[in-house]
Predict the 3D structure of the following.
Amino acid sequence: MFRDETGRLTAALVRALGDFDLAEELVQEALLEAVEHWPKEGIPDKPGAWLLTTARRKAIDQFRRQARYREKLALLEGASMRDDTAEGDDRLRLIFTCCHPALSREAQVALTLRAVAGLTTIEIARAFITSEATIAQRIVRAKRKIVEARIPYRVPAERDMGERLEEVLAVLYLMFNEGYLATAGERASRRDLAEDAVWLAGLMVRLMPEEPEALGLLALMRLHLARADSRFDVEGNLVLLQDQDRSKWDRERIATALVVLQGAAALRRSGPYQLQAAIAACHAEARSWEATDWQQIVALYDVLLELMPSPIVQLNRAIAHRYLEGAASALPEVDALQEVLDDYYLFHATRAELLRDLGRVAESRAALARALELTANPAERTLLQRRLG
């Protein structure tokens, strides 16, 4: 509940006060007060409204202690702070504010994931495959820049949306990924966070219906979530794609995603999200693992690599290549990524699978052990430990 409300509260307070640091401080204080009161008094009927009222009260108390409290108090009292914090507009405004072109790409994404999605700096660092200190510095600098540059808190005019679109979509993509398979915490996935990202992506499509990459991202998210009910067994263990019960896949969601993807293709401006959605569609449309069109998937990865050269895309392409040409052909492609992906658990987990297929058992076990060191996701850890066993 706290995770769900944090982004909404932060967005509402930033809109009212124009101050990121203060908004986050007030939200944290409201959450702490809830921790103190709710166990004794019970969770209120409208927890979001309770938290917003508490944060507002704490803001007023704080302003009364400041020399310029009258100015801030007038801002707060004059602001429209609805009890209905579920409105998407505030969070969209906050996303566009965080993705202002005056900020670096890395800062934009890190700040939005922190302020809107409520991710911790550790979770964001894992998503970026970098250090927690680096992410913390990016967020601090971004907040300072917003204040110094007087960046407005609003959804930009339609003519200005294009320059921020890439960053906004990147944020929603990372937000979805964190929900789909969490990098930290006790839960293997955070369905609420993934659904939130899908909802915000849908709002982006409504804002920019002729933007094919926004459509592609929405289709990609829906295709992945269509498999959500088959990804974990009753004990919470991760079930790999080849072992999933395809009768549990949400065929209606797949169908609507394919319609969205076809709409994107009709605009004839291909992009990375559309290609990733097309790859996901190949899996979704295959009636069995054996019926998967690996030749088509490898071809799509080849086009994706041209548009978005990335070691992660190269790794995924090598995985697909394994099922087309075999482990002996795929292993050199994976080994070539050692230097850039040595701190990425999926690199080592993939390499372990290929080495096992080739009968190199000791090397496979060493790679599995390294992968286990690099992931904090409980379901992934269980899977790797089971393989090691």
Remarks:
- Residues 102 and 209 are 26 Å apart (CA to CA).
